[in-house]
Amino acid sequence: xxxxxxxxxxxxxxxxxxxxxxxxxxxxxxxxxxxxxxxxxxxxxxxxxxxxxxxxxxxxxxxxxxxxxxxxxxxxxxxxxxxxxxxxxxxxxxxxxxxxxxxxxxxxxxxxxxxxxxxxxxxxxxxxxxxxxxxxxxxxxxxxxxxxxxxxxxxxxxxxxxxxxxxxxxxxxxxxxxxxxxxxxxxxxxxxxxxxxxxxxxxxxxxxxxxxxxxxxxxxxxxxxxxxxxxxxxxxxxxxxxxxxxxxxxxxxxxxxxxxxxxxxxxxxxxxxxxxxxxxxxxxxxxxxxxxxxxxxxxxxxxxxxxxxxxxxxxxxxxxxxxxxxxxxxxxxxxxxxxxxxxxxxxxxxxxxxxxxxxxxxxxxxxxxxxxxxxxxxxxxxxxxxxxxxxxxxxxxxxxxxxxxxxxxxxxxxxxxxxxxxxxxxxxxxxxxxxxxxxxxxxxxxxxxxx
Length: 451
Hints:
Organism: Actinomadura miaoliensis
Largest sheet: 7 strands, antiparallel
Structural class: alpha+beta
CATH class: Alpha Beta
CATH topology: FAD/NAD(P)-binding domain
Family: Belongs to the GMC oxidoreductase family.
Domain Glucose-methanol-choline oxidoreductase N-terminal: 39-250
Helix content: 25-40%
Number of strands: 21
Keywords: FAD, Flavoprotein, Oxidoreductase
Distance between the termini: 16 Å
Pfam family, one: GMC_oxred_N
CATH architecture: 3-Layer(bba) Sandwich
Shape: globular
C-alpha cells in the first residue's frame, strides 16, 4: 500500500509551538468561500497539511453523528444500509467504537479558570455546559499547542494512531511531499475503472499504477482532482454533482475581555460545550468553550461589528489584553449550498451562498455567545469573521446515483475501483465536529476493501 501526501512528515518531536512555523508546515494556506458576489463576509477555510492531515492540528473533539444527521443523510442522498433501511446510528456505531478505542476518546472534565468563568454566564442565561469528549490521553499537559501540533503525542492523530503502526508492519510506503495531479481511468461506460494516479515529487513526474485508489484530499481538493481528471465531465447525474452540496459548519470565535487573567492560550482548548440548541428546531447551533487563537492568527481574524477587519488602535488595544481574553466557539448547522470548482493550483473557486435560515442561525448563535460572555463579566466582546475547519459534503455518498457521487461503500458510481475516503462523502453537514465520523467512515471503508 502506498500513501501519497502533498505535505511533509512531521512527528511529535518536530512540534515546538512556534505559531508561524506551524502555519507554514502544518496548515494549508487559507481558502476563502465567497458568500456574496462582492466578496464581502467570506468564510475563511482552514485545513491541515502533512502526513496525518488535519488531525495533526485539530482540537481532538470526538463526537458521533446524531439522529438528525442520519435523517438528513437519507433525505439528501437516499442513503440506506445493506438491508435497504435508512442509514442510522446502528450502521456506524461499531466503527465509532473501534475509532474511540484506538484514539482514546475520553471526557474532559479538567475545566480551567476560563471555563469556570464562562460557566457562570451559561448558568445566568439558563443554558447548560457539559464536558466534551476528546481523543487525548493522560499525557496531555494542557499547554494549548493542539493547533501547532501536539509535542507530547497525547493528542490522537491519524499519524500516531493509524499510520505509524501501519508503517511498522513494513506494508505501508509513505511518500510525503508528493502532489497528485490526476487520477487515471481506463474504459468507457460500465467498463470504466481506475488505473492509477499521476504525481509529482522532488524527483519529477511519475505514474503509479493501482487497481484501487482512495482519494482523501479533503472536501475542497478531492472534487478538484476529480474535475481535473475529467470525471465531472462525464454525462451522468452522479458526475454532475462533483463539487456540489458543500457544507461549511460555519463558525465564529466570540471573545470576551475580562478583568481577570484568563491565559486561555496555555490550557487544553475546548473542554466544554453547550448542546441546548443543537437540533435545528432548537436553534441549529452548538457552542464550545473555551479557546483562543495564537496571537498572529487572532489579530488576522478579528472583525468589527460590520464584518470589517479590526485595524489600528482598536486592534492594538484588544491585542494588548490577550491574556485577559477567552472565546466561545459557535458552530452552526447549514444547508450545504456550497460549490467547489477546480483551479490550476487546486486552491479552487469556492462559493458558499448563505440562505436566510442559515444566516438566522449565525445571528442567533452570535447573540447568544455575546450574552453569555457579558453575563460572565466580560468588559468587551469582539469576534472573528466567519471561519471553518469542518468543510464537508462536496462528493456526497448515497444509494441513489442521481443524488450522490459515490455509493454507500464510498465507491464512485462511475468508476470501478475509485473510492473517496474523506469528509467530502458526508451527505449533509454534521451537527458536531466531524473528525470522529470521518475516521469511522474510513474504518468502514477499510473493512469493505479488505473483504
